[in-house]
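[agent] plan:
  1. take the single chain provided in the ticket
  2. run structure prediction with default settings
  3. attach structure tokens to the ticket
  4. add a short note for the reviewer (M.T.)
[agent] executing step 1
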Amino acid sequence: MDALNSNLTTIISSENTTGLPTISGVDFSFSFQFWFSLSFQVPSLLCYSIILTHIFTQKTQRQALHNHSIIVLLIIALCVVLFDYSWTLDSLRRGEVWPQTPAFCEVWWLFDYGFYNACTVVLAWASFERHILIFHSNLISTKRRRILIHYLPLITILIYLTIFYTYVIFFPPCENQYDYTSPICGAYPCYLTIESLGMWDTIAHEITATLLAAIFNVGLLVNVLWQKRRHRQNWKKCRKMAFQLLSVSALFLSLNFPLAITFLVQVSGYPDWGVQAQLYLYFFSALIQYLLPFVCLPYASGLWSKMKRFFIQNNRRVVPMVITRAMRGQQRESRM
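[agent] step 2 finished; step 3 output follows
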């Protein structure tokens, strides 16, 4: 463990660190980074508003147990896109951070580190819980069991993450340094340079959560394919519940899994391994939050039919007006 702590400290403390890069660490111009992010952010926010409005206005969607973790995930990811990525875009446009206050930087770090890592931890829990919802539904057959097994763990996770990141970011046992000329105010808070806190945050909230999500999802896929082969009843419902989470997990793991492996190798004694690739993985990891609502969209029951009815009704309102005008023109010609 001493060796791991030493390697982690070396990675974080080095001037050319890649474990905690600024957005400018990639070999892209600020102009490209700005337009790349903006082109994803606008449609992403629109999609977030559509899918969350649909879920909260549909009682069956709100009450569905398998949707609760996804709803929490969507809300947390929306906050990252709405605040963290918007402030990053603004700093790219200005060339500096504004407002230039420690409080603003700390709130920004909360979204950039706390909310981002919360997504991974919630996904790990959702991946485990989906096994219960699909294959062991008897464990949540009563109200008391649902509170103990479904609601309480998720609430506990959120409370724990809130306390942890509030403490390490706003009340750290060290002095934060702020760089107002760099996006995210210099990229990272000081608690990451403290061996115990930095190691715990990295190992528990990033590496372990990512690996657990990967393991649980592989197990879920194997179980789903096995149940399909046995022609289990309610297969269609189980398949939808499984593939909803598998799609979301595939999006997260596509970038977080190689990041976790890279950092695991680095803290194991090879701090220079995968340095350049890690920079680009961090930069493109923003796509996870940008694309999340689009991945969830196909599994929003009733949304497509609602949108179809909306457009059909609008077309019906327009067509009679066109016909009426045409008929009036024909009547005038006949009179002349």
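[agent] step 4 note for reviewer: Confidence is low (pLDDT under 50) at residues 1-11, 13-22, 323-327, 331-336.
[agent] ticket updated
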